[in-house]
Hints:
By secondary structure, the protein is α/β, with parallel strands linked by helices. It is about 35% helix and about 10% strand. The protein contains seven helices and five strands, in the order βαβαβαβααβαα. Helix 2 (about 50-60) links the parallel strand 2 (about 35-45) and strand 3. The radius of gyration is 18 Å and the shape is globular.
Amino acid sequence: MKMKMTDxxxxxxxxLLSGGADSATCLALARKKGREVYALSFDYGQRHxxxxxxxxxxxxxxxxxxxxxxxxxxxxxxxSALTSRKIRVPKGGVRPGTIPxxxxxxxxxxxxxxxxxxxxxxGAREIWIGANVIDYSxxxxxxxxxxxxxxxxxxxxxxAGVTGRRFQIVAPLLKLSKKEIFRLGKALGIDLRWTFSCYxxxxxxxSCGRCDSCRLRNRAxxxxx
Length: 225
């Protein structure tokens, strides 16, 4: 009697999902690659918390297996313009070579650590992040060196890693320009109206149009026209 051949189970991946265009494109690409996606978003007291409503809708639209919104009480919330109303969000662009006021202390390290814990618990071996080094605004935790170091740590400090079930940090947008990311997202079926990128939205949720995130988004949109 011949054994019935079955398809191998899909590869599980935890994808960091902020609600912005980069993370949406990253998630859509993971789905296109056949990954079973577990989306992970964070409520960390950000002034642009409206992004979480976009993240929830994106997770549903893009067919995620699960979506978690984790609450993180950042001890350094007073040190960033994204988490403190006492610090102004820069509106005139960011000077090259500087780390802007919108940097949140060790944010990506915390987010990736949370993703790693969930990944190990569910048997996922990939963690996807929409980090980018071209339009990254000077954030040190978006650099390739940081992501490589975190991957090494993940494989040294987990039971899965030391028993041969190694983790991979996947950053497919790392070297793409914002325009290239938008073009890729469109090809993957992402409507930019589904995403939100502003750091300092108005009370009713409209983008400010002048923060660094808005400037990068608007410039890329203009280049695509």
